[in-house]
Amino acid sequence: DAPSHPPGVTPAMNCRAEVLEVSVEGRQVEEAMLAVLHTVLLHRSTGKFHYKKEGTYSIGTVGTQDVDCDFIDFAYVRVSSEELDRALRKAVGEFKDALRNSGSDGMGQISLEFYQKKKSRWPFSDECIPWELWTIKVNVVNLANEQERQICREKVGEKLCEKIINIVEVMNRHEYLPKMPTQSEVDNVFDTSLKDVQPYLYKISYQITDSLGTSVTTTMRRLIKDTLAL
Amino acid sequence: AMDTDLSSQDRKDLDKFIKFFALKTVQVIVQARLGEKICTRSSSSPTGSDWFNLAIKDIPEVTHEAKKALAGQLPAVGRSMCVEISLKTSEGDSMELEIWCLEMNEKCDKEIKVSYTVYNRLSLLLKSLLAITRVTPAYRLSRKQGHEYVILYRIYFGEVQLSGLGEGFQTVRVGTVGTPVGTITLSCAYRINLAFMSTRQFERTPPIMGIIIDHFVDRPYPSSSPMHPCNYRAGEDNGVVYPSVEDSQEVCTTSFSTSPPSQCVFTVTKAHFQTPPPVVTDTLKVPVMGLTFSHQLSSSRLSYQPAALGVGSADMGYPVLFAGGLNAAHPHQLIGPGKEGGIPPIPSQPAHGTQADQEKMCTPLDGVHYSAATPSSSEDTETVSNSSEGKCGSPHDLLETIFIRKVGAFVNKPINQVTMANLDIPFAMFAPKNVELEDNDPMVNPPDSPETESPLQGSLHSEGSSGSSTGNTHDDFVMIDFKPAFSKDDILPMDLGTFYREFQNPPQLSSLSIDIGAQSMAEDLDSLPEKLAVHEKNVKEFDAFVETLQ
What we know:
- The complex is a heterodimer.
- In chain A, helix 1 packs antiparallel against helix 2 and helix 1 runs parallel beside helix 3.
- By secondary structure, chain A is an alpha+beta fold.
- Chain A contains 5 helices and 11 strands.
- In chain A, the strands form 4 sheets. Chain A has a 5-stranded mixed beta sheet.
- Chain A is 30% helix and 33% strand.
- Chain B has a domain of 183 residues: Cell Cycle, Spindle Assembly Checkpoint Protein, Chain A.
- Helices cover 20% and strands 15% of the residues of chain B.
- A 6-stranded antiparallel beta sheet of chain B has the order 4-5-2-1-3-6. Chain B has a 3-stranded antiparallel beta sheet with strand order 7-9-8, with helices on one face.
- Chain B is elongated.
- At the A-B interface, helix 1, strand 4, strand 5, strand 6 and helix 3 of A face helix 3, helix 4, strand 4 and strand 7 of B.
- Strand 4 of chain A pairs antiparallel with strand 7 of chain B, so a sheet runs across the interface.
């Protein structure tokens, strides 16, 4: 499971947190979540680093592609990486299923956290220090007829446009980013497991809120192989 | 001078970054308005020397236009690079949709590291631009272009001109990057009068009669630079739909090659100076965080050329752009000799007969398509303009578009299909039937109350009233977001406000339609006896019904 922080350390000290909220129909959950997560990861992924002798490195190229949504009048750009797309779809699919099965009012949130690893001496496990946290709060609505659905398609599309603009605003603040690591440190900053791009280390988790407003399920999903190394 | 603190090497690098950033910005914007999905491939090994570590293809004509507009200058205070996106209907009316502005202000960040931080932030800004170009209203319009309208771009350099966007335009900021010589800002001002035009309204085009669009504006500035279509693609139907072309406009097909970007290699060394490899043209050392940071810029345009091809060979098969396909695969990048970063000399034009073979689309690199470039006359790309029309017949033959509209019962069904070519109302298809605007639109006029409508018009049509209109001449307005008192205003209002909006102008009843009123009137009169007979037969039922109401 997730490495824990040594007692007494507040992990969120320098972590900036952004919260986005969307109301969507059930069938729109996946696309809306993917649109937001991919947009964030577009900004938080670089090309693969290739370290050479004497500590020099070169950076690979990040390709991008347009994605059209089927249930929302919306399109977004994502990084061209099937591995990354698969990982996000898996997480979002689980979130969607959890929302549906929870029997709640259809409220939940999914979080994307970027963190750095800091090696600790034995017996402590490595610290994960988050530096940026994105939370998307989702409210699932049920619609009565086709008319409403059509309006919903457009409205959610417009709302997502606003969210993209919000995300870009945050990215443009040029606030803290981990410094570029040396070769020995690269796995503490970046996820180097993908073959074509290199996102910052991230993890995705979600919570479903029951009708009392308390969160009943917290699932930490680690999408990086590094967990197993600990 | 402001930049005395900046080493000359840094200054050179910075200028180069800004220049290529400007060129890539233009590429991203124009490609986002081609009307097609863009797809480029990630490449883990940096063969590609792609600027800013992003795979952004270079459409040569676009780079050419950008360089022409910049004329060797860089964005500076008061000298902004602007990409104007506009729409032009098959009738020839045009309207500005967006102005993307790359500006420089005086706020300098002396501390920032040029070759490292500035470069990475410019990369981030390009990513933001990729994202933002999909969320302004013109994106959806551009995805639907081809038949009734096309999207054009124009690049100019100098003062930003926003007056063509209509009143109440909105601005979105893409981002800023501070540099030692000023802060680069990238933003977009966009027209909102068409902002909420849903795609429904293109699929179900309203009847044209009586709609008055006042968005049509003459281009306020006789263009100092020509407009260009974003979409080079052949129409999806047989036959190519071309807009009627003004003299100053160009509809170009060009042979395609990418311009060779330079390669950036970041090195992090510990007080160790690299021996530059042979292709290096610049070497920069900037102390960063106690490490010596050495940065090499190399122009590697020859390094990835396939061995079989000779440079400058006239036999090179340049992939053809006409399909709008951004179809350069890395191994097949054909680089001609030229200035570093410059456009290679454009070879012969493809014959327009190749249009028929054109692939549709920007395809992912692994599915790249080529049409063999058939050398024809070696005309300059810029003067191609009307030559394309010769192959396609007169443009006017092709301008008739047929509108078929789905409407509910009792609605005016046009006897003849309305053809666009017969109508002389500009932007008729953009009838702002259900345009909803933010409250800050100063062009708002409240709608006239629909007194002339018969009570039967309140009946619900299966398709709703979207996209249709009445013969009501009071449609030259745009409607504000209607918030009736006591109505809910949550994310999905299906409340009084929405209801009112949706059904405010339902389609005209056939009997009340002006254009075929006379004809249907005659029909109605003829059919009256028959109808009366039917009603008389059912008189008992009617009576029973009336009973139940009492």
